[in-house]
# Entry
Amino acid sequence: MNRVVVTGMGLITPIGNDVETFWKSIHEGRVGIGPIRNFDTTDYKAKLSAEVTDFEPKDYMTPKDAKRMDRFSQFAVAAAIQAAEDAGLDMAREDEYRVGVCIGSGTGSLMGIEREYDKLLEKGAKRINPLTAPMVLGNMAAANVAMCLKCRGKCIDVVTACATGTNSIGEAFRAIQHGEADIIVAGGVDSSVSKFGVATFQALTALSTSDNPLQASIPFDRKRDGFVTGEGAGVLVLEELEHAIKRNAHIYAEIGGYGATCDASHLTSPLEDGSGAAKAMEFAIKDAGLMPKDIDYINAHGTSTPMNDKFETRAIKLAFGEHAYKVKINSTKSMIGHLFGAGGAVELITCIKSINEGYIHQTVGLVDDDPECDLDYTKGSGVYMPVNIAISNSLGFGGHNATILVKKYF
# Structure
């Protein structure tokens, strides 16, 4: 099978709207969480979110194109343009039908649906924007990226809730491995800090009700009480190795393995013993021809909910045995909240930067150790150390488990 490498990366996040700014914020331990600005939270218990700031669609597209996209599609296009430029991708030199897109959204545009539904109730059906359907559908992030970059190969939208970004990259990896494409622009996106979106997760009692941005998303801490909704996009250019070498592309890292499973157990809760998530990790490691002891670093799903962090800890112990106590673990969600479909893609880019720069960031806000979460979660400060192999975990509602393994390219 073909080897697959990463040749470009792009980001829109609550702590930076490009990879360089994001990584600087990671080093600083900056927390991108604050009061929800998108709607009045008077009647909400959850009042914090991790929203993207200083984003200007005009930096990436014409005003006309921007009006035809909802916010999540704008994010996806912006991150994809960054990634394509970073990769030095010149579509005039490519077979357009050998360049694909696999960018997933977990929710589509909840804000767009709310906006147009309000019009329906207040002004009637005739006042609905005629482009509503193609603006709010989840697949339109991938479609808009394909139109923007002129990618005519496989174009798909994977939807697996919070595992969307990781599954999207994993499926793109598989497609290139099996010769279906030379290049796939892959990742995840979501922008659902909306009245309805926040209300639904609040009704599940899944959200933090803290009013302190620094104590709201605190994965693996004894006092954690839920996740913080966020928004953003992460996009990578995945490329067949020989194709990348022929065009003299810069190679950031190699995708080594992918594992995906389903708990097939509960609508929202992971399996208590962590066995489903453990299998996803085991499959990714085996896919790469490696052993658990070879892994230096795990970017955990780490949502800051009482159940996820405890059960993911159990999963890591099942998959890694004694090595679970030696591997470095952290949660990027401690700084950016939960970006839903974008989370796995942003966190994989974090893994790649950790490999490139030999730095593993701290789990910000982790102060009070939970005795049931007793692994090394990089508490207190980041660590400089060689990172050759890392895995990124994503665990979605419905029991979707996905793991990507990335390694230093030699």
